Fold this sequence. Notes:
Blueprint lengths: L3 E9 L3 E4 H18 L1 H5 L11 H8 L3 E4 L25 H17 L8 E5 L10 H9 L4 E5 L5 H15 L4 E8 L19 E9 L7 E11 L5 E2 L22 E2 L1 H22 L7 E6 L4 H12 L12 H4 L6 H8 L9 E8 L3 E10 L2
Parallel strand pairs: 4-5, 4-6, 11-12
Antiparallel strand pairs: 1-7, 1-8, 2-3, 6-7, 8-13, 9-10, 12-13
Amino acid sequence: MHQPVISGTGVFTPEEVITNDELVVAFNAYADKFNAAHADEIAAGEVAEVPQSSSAFIFAASGIERRHVMNKSGILDPDRMYPTLRQRSDDEPGIMAEMALDACHKALAQAGKTAADVDAVIVAASNLERAYPAIAIEVQDLLGIEGFGFDLNVACSSATFGIQAASDMVRAGSAKAILVVNPEVTSGHLEWRDRDCHFIFGDVCTATLIERKEDVSGPHFEVVSTKCLTKFSNNIRNNNGFLRRNRPDGVADRRDMQFMQNGRKVFKEVLPIVSKHILSHLEDAGHSADELKRLWLHQANKAMNDFIGKKVLGRVPEAGEQPNILQEYANTSSAGSIIAFSQYSEDIEDGELGLICSFGAGYSVGSVLLRRVAP
C-alpha cells in the first residue's frame, strides 16, 4: 500500500470578467424588454413579470462581487443572455481540454513533475462538453500521457470524488500519479435570465496532482482519509447536462435544460448533511474539529460556508480558518474548493491538518482530510 499525497495544484482563470454592476445592467435591460413585450399577459395575470436585479441584492444573497467567464459579450447581450462559445471542429481541442491543459501544466510545475510522470487523468466536472470520447482521454492525449483517463460527474462534488478515486488507485498501486482536473464552463448551463440565479456561476479550471509519497521530495499534503456521501434530491437539477450550443434563431432551450435550484430547500437540507458529514469523517479518522487548521469549503454561498464553519468548529471561524474566493470567482462548481485550497494552503505548517469539502446536487458531499508535510 502506498501513501497518496497532493503535490501540486493549478488554476486556469479566464481573462474576461463580469462585475455585478455589469451583470445587473444587462439583466435589467432584458427584464424591461420582456415586461414590455408581455405587458398585456402580465396585466392579465397570465405571465409573471420579471423583477429587477441589483448589485446589493446579489452580494447580500451570495457574497459574490464578480465572476470570470469564457465569453462575456453573449452573456451581457439582453437579446441573447448566454455565452457565445464557438462550435469547434472535431480536429480541434475542445474548450474544456484547452482549459485543462493550462491548469495541468501549472499543477505539474508546482510539483516539479512532467506529463511523463503521470499515469492517468480524471476529468471531474458538473457539465461535460460532450458525452464521448471522454474529455479526460483528450486531455491525456494532448499532454502525451501514457496510461488512461475517464470522466466523472458528481456535480459540485466532482473534484473531491475524483480525489478519492485517484487516492484509492495510488494507494492500491494501480497508478503512480494521477491528474484530477475540473474544467467548469458553468456559464454554459446557467439561466442568465432568471433573477434568482443569474449571478451564481463563473468559469474556471483546476487541476490537482495525486501521487505516491515516496516519489515526492518537496512540500506536499498527505491524503489522510477521504469520505463521500450521496442522497438523491431534485432540488438542484439540470435536465440537459451538456453545454448549450449556439442557435442561429437565438431561441432559448427549455428552462429545465439549464441549472435549476430550489434555494431555500437546499439551504435547509444540505447544511445539516454537510456538517454531520465532516464531523463524522473526522471522528472516523481519529481526529477532532479543533485539530483543523483550515477548512477549504465548496464556494457556493458565503452564508452557507459561514454556517458550516460555525457548526463544525463549534464557534465562529477566525479570519483565515475558512477562506472564501466567492467574491472573485463566484460559484465555480466542483473547482471552488480546489481554488480555495490552491490559494490558501502555503502557510499551513508541517504536521497541521486541513479539510477540503464540496457539496451540491445529488445531494452529494465529498471531503478530503489532509496533513501538511514540509521537508
